[in-house]
Amino acid sequence: MADTKILTEGCKDFGISLTEKQTEQFLEYYKLLIEWNEVMNLTAITEFEEVLSKHFVDSCALGKAVSMEGEKRLLDVGTGAGFPGIPLKIVYPELEVVLLDSLNKRVKFLNAVIENLGLTGITAIHGRAEDIAKQKEYREGFDLVVSRAVANLSSLSEYCLPFVKTGGMFVPYKSGSVDTELSEASRAIKVLGGEYRDTVRFELPGTDIDRTLVVIEKVKETPKKYPRKAGTPSKEPIK
């Protein structure tokens, strides 16, 4: 069996003890990621230990910022190759997870992973956040909304906050310092019904990479007009 110490020790840093089955699921996930990556662009990071650290362990950090106890419904916006949604589903099997991505071929990959890993209570959907957030079954329907997508916090808040239930949390995964970004996004967060709660900074276990989780609570409903039509949040962030 491949050396999974980086994965098991890294998860332990976040208070997660992996079972043998979970470790096997991560190994199978890695295998599928590399196979599919040869025919489509899923990740630039392919080396085994780097994937374990920078994708898998990093994805599992959510428990550092919010409580993961109980039954929760989680949405991963702009999930790409399934990060952080699939690792979170592996380590917290009771989570109900929805993975959202705008590229259909990536959704096919995600479905292959879900099937091969034998995961239940998780679905992958194809669409743009701006359109899906208008649908009744998804709007304000999630306890937790996460994203590792590379977008400024103001745009990302408009993509994500409409999905969060009042009382729920939006937690974007960021690298390094977010102070400037946070101050620039403060109005957008407020307009969309959110309230900044905390910034959780940590070093990715076994590396010198600085990571940041921003905790935003949904305190009131998002006005109906948000998100604006596809493309607008990134072109004209709320200021």
From TrEMBL:
Cellular localisation: Cytoplasm
Keyword match Cell inner membrane: no
Binding site for S-adenosyl-L-methionine: G78, F83, A129, E130, R148
GO cellular component terms given for this protein: cytosol
Keywords: Cytoplasm, Methyltransferase, rRNA processing, S-adenosyl-L-methionine, Transferase
Family: Belongs to the methyltransferase superfamily. RNA methyltransferase RsmG family.
Function, as annotated: Specifically methylates the N7 position of a guanine in 16S rRNA.
Designated name of the protein: Ribosomal RNA small subunit methyltransferase G
Gene label: rsmG
